[in-house]
Amino acid sequence: MENYRQTIGRIFDIQKFSIHDGDGIRTIVFLKGCVLRCRWCCNPESQEYAIQTMKVAGEEKIIGRDVTVDEVMKTVEQDRPYYYRSGGGLTLSGGESLCQPEFAKNLLRAAKESGISTAMESMACAEYHVIESILPFLDQYLLDIKHMNPARHKEYTGRSNERMLENAKKIARSGQTRLSIRIPVIPTFNDSAEEIREIAAYAKELSNVEKIHLLPYHRLGQDKYDGLGREYGMKDILPPQAEHMQELKTVAEAESGLPCQIGG
Question: Does pTM surpass 0.85?
Answer without folding.
Answer: yes
